[in-house]
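Our consortium's second objective concerns turning raw sequence data into structural hypotheses that experimental partners can test. To show how far this objective has progressed, the report includes one record in full. It was chosen at random from the queue rather than selected for favorable results. The single chain below, 426 residues long, was entered without modification.
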Amino acid sequence: QAKNDAAELNEHTSIDIDVLSNDIDPEGGPLTITDLSDPANGSATLNPDDSIHYEPDAHYVGNDSFTYTVNDEDGASSTATVNILIVPTMPDAVADSAYSNGAPVTIDILANDTGLEDGPLIVVAGDGANGTVTIDPITHHAIYTPSPHFVGVDTFYYKVFDSHFDYSATSVTVTVAALVANDDDPSDIAGFSGDSTVIFNVLDNDTGIDDQPLVLVAADGDNGVTSIDPNDLTIGYRPSADFSGDDSFLYKVFDADYDHDSAKVDVNGVLSGSETDDADLTGSAGNDILFGLGGNDTLDGGEGTDAVLGGAGDDVLIFDANDSFLDGGSGVDTLSLNWDDGSLDELLTKIDNIEQAELNTAGANGEQSYLLSDTGISSLSLSDGVISIDNSGNATNSDGITGLNFAQLSGGVSVFADVPIDAVFV
């Protein structure tokens, strides 16, 4: 006896149906399919294993059916119906959003779409009211280019067709941001150069400027001059000689459309020496920037988080572990460490925590005997005079014994091999 069957499949696919699996011969004999009708919306063919292969017509979704007849060994026959449901698999385009800083932005509009397992055949898009849209024929990404000087929210629409020309449409919302320059202060110092110039990366906190050509201009401060590095668009500031106090300067940034914005950079706590004469500068309890400029200067940051820049001349730089920047500049300079009594490894840890420093105290074999690189520090001493290192790399302790050897540690810091790392200097 043949019994009715049911099957379900997605449009544009086919299925093999084992219709005999639920059919019964009361005498237990084999059954054979002897007749097969044509479905109204597809085709049905008999496979060698007596399963039936069904394929719907192109683009058809809904219900379909066909009948089949079985015979047993005695010639008795029975007919049953196979009911089929074809499920639609239309593409489903899901809305997208994107951000532009005024430059063209590439959007993977198909990343969140479904029903494209066989790959998209065509993607078409219209322009937005305030921008143009092109579709990359290889990646199917949309490239949105805002109109010059437009700032705000724009929308465009796209339609995606699958390989069977079924389609879905949706929208893409693009927020086009304005260029905004934000003010800076000494906490934004990024480094220094060897001519007593502090470097500000003023664009770090600005918005609407990513990945596009820029033009940067800066005015001098009332008590200092500015310079712009054309490669990385940082701004340097160098104070006038013999200046003490707060200064500031303005800069303006232009984007690719020449939209622009301005901001102010505060340079607070400036202490500068003479271009030629010796100076003795001591910082306040706050955060200071000490500039030696020229002459043989003594620079003491004092309390606070300070930047100490020796500039030209044979300078003495006095700093502690709270200071963030140190630059010996040119000349034969001496570094003096303000350090509370403690072990040598504690001292080295404090020095290593300095954000940026440049010293040059070559060791016995030319290795770095202390800290960092090559800006002219030629001797190192503790402020209590316990240990000092001269220009040739020789070390002297408080008893006048010389010849201590260097032992290189990680992080570019060296100590003396025969001084216990936990020694306490008083």
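The partners drew two points from this record. The chain has one helix and 34 strands. The mean pLDDT is 78. Both points have been shared with the crystallography group to help prioritize constructs.
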